[in-house]
Write a structure and sequence with these properties.
Helix content: 55-70%
Number of helices: 6
Order of helices and strands: HHHEHHHE
Structural class: mainly alpha
Strand order of the largest sheet: 1-2
Oligomer: single chain
Radius of gyration: 16 Å
Distance between the termini: 12 Å
Amino acid sequence: MVSVFSRRVIAYVIDFFVVSAFMWLVSFLLNFAMSGHAYSVYQVLIYVVPVLIFVYFVYCEKTFGATVGKSIMYLQVRSKNGARISMPQAIVRNITKIYWFPIIFDWAIGKIMKTDRLMNTITKTVVIDELR
């Protein structure tokens, strides 16, 4: 059986592809709206992409308790008391995912503290294994 950590990494990769598909659609629509000025689209995307990533993770985890990747890997995000996470919890726990790489520091600091991710500790959330 694959560990929960491995499934979380796989879920994150799946979510990367889901967000990439959304980014492709947004860039296509922006290119159309900007009359084919590709350089202008790339200037706008630097601001749109982090917002899209953040909104995806916050919306999915708040509304469904999991992103597409987590759902496929049978993982759920919950408060430590077992309830669905609140909007403030979803916002804070996903702040490190805005540019994809701060999550590494979030995880590393969590490991140094002998816990899960730092943001999970701060928000009192956990990722649970639905297969158990």
